[in-house]
Amino acid sequence: MVIDLHTHSSVSDGTDTPTQLITTAAAAGLSTVALTDHDTTAGWAEAAAALPAGLSLIRGAELSCTSPNGRGGTATVHLLAYLFDPTAPAIVAEQSRLRAERRARLHKMARRMAADGYPVDADELMAGLPEDSPAGRPHLAMALVKAGVVQTVDEAFAVFLNSNGRFHVSRRDTPVHTAIEMIADAGGVTVLAHAFAHHRGPTVTADVIKELAAAGLTGLEVDHPDHDEATRAELAELAGDLRLVRTGSSDYHGTNKTIRIGQESTSPEALAELVSRTSGVPVLHG
Ligand code: AMP
Ligand code: FE
Ligand code: FE
Ligand code: ZN
Questions:
Q1: Which of 157, 252, 259 should be mutated for ligand 1, with most atoms under 8 A from CB?
Q2: Nearest C-alpha to atom 2 of ligand 1 is from which residue?
Q3: For the chain, percent of residues with pLDDT exceeding 70
Q4: In the chain, where does DSSP find H-type helix?
Q5: d(CA 260, CA 214)
């Protein structure tokens, strides 16, 4: 049984359509896969329709949040939200606000690069993205690869798109406490994604995770490609101390990253614990 609880389709910043993602998951021998596109549930129906016998689908999303960082400042954190009612008005409103903000922000980043002479057509980039989609830096990164400015998406992030770069534009993400509450109210559970992925930018302290656990966070993503062995050990201990459910997931993005689906996984016991605390929408079995 291979359970992978964190994947992205082309509905956000992955490269597989939801149907292709389900096919990839089945071909890789997964027993359960969660679809967790950034700030949208728009891929749920297509993924559900593509589900083959033997594969279960956890419908989820990865919420872009802002949190106190425990050092007097703030940090971006990602919350994996599972099995919540996607029609809950608070969720619909906040996610739609955030998607609009994502598009405005990406457009601005692309315009900044174009103004500096890089071969980026900001309007064309935006026109190529579906209306109401959660546009993200990987879309600009792919355009830079296509234009021959960089060889890979990783290189685009390293050279141009990271949060310290001069083209970067920040975003008003959802306050993390609001997100935890909104998902809980809609019958879902939340898991803090790649909490100590230091290379992505500033992270939160263990004290912040303790606060989030008190505020209703259910789990902690321990096994993630961006966590080294020492980091995993540290997070596993924290999960044990705080009674948070320990998960592991690939954060698969198709060919935007070099990670395989199912490369990291979650135990059946941890999955059962998460599911037992939900009442929004059910797990779907193919
Ligand atoms: P955004 O949603 O615009 O804030 O962009 C963040 C997304 O970019 C994350 O969801 C990651 O999937 C992706 N990402 C972040 N760092 C990298 C990187 N170094 N290489 C490829 N993708 C990245
Ligand atoms: Fe992503
Ligand atoms: Fe993430
Ligand atoms: Zn992710």
A1: 157
A2: 136
A3: 100
A4: 18-27, 44-49, 89-115, 122-127, 137-146, 153-156, 176-185, 206-214, 229-242, 268-276
A5: 34
Closest residue by CA, ligand 1 atom 19: 154
**Residue bearing the CA closest to ligand 1, atom 18:** 154
Ligand 2 is an ion; residues with CB less than 5 A from it: 13
Predicted pLDDT of residue 257: 77
Ligand 1 atom nearest residue 253's Cα: 12
**What secondary structure does DSSP assign to 73-102, as a single string?**
SEEEEEEEEES--TT-HHHHHHHHHHHHHH
- Looking at residue 160, the DSSP 8-state letter turns out to be I
Tens digits of per-residue pLDDT, 185-236?
A: 999 999 999 999 988 888 999 999 999 999 999 999 999 999 999 999 999 9
pLDDT in tens, 130-185: 999 999 999 999 999 999 999 999 999 999 999 999 999 999 999 999 999 999 99
Number of the ligand closest to the Cα of 36: 4
- In whole angstroms, give the CA distance from residue 278 to residue 153: 36
List pLDDT tens digits, range 76-118.
999 999 999 999 999 999 999 999 999 999 999 999 999 999 9
Q: In the Cβ-directed half-sphere of 122, how many Cα atoms lie within 13 Å? A: 17
Q: Which residues line ligand 1 (CB under 6 A)?
A: 13, 38, 136-138, 153-154, 157, 200, 253, 256-257
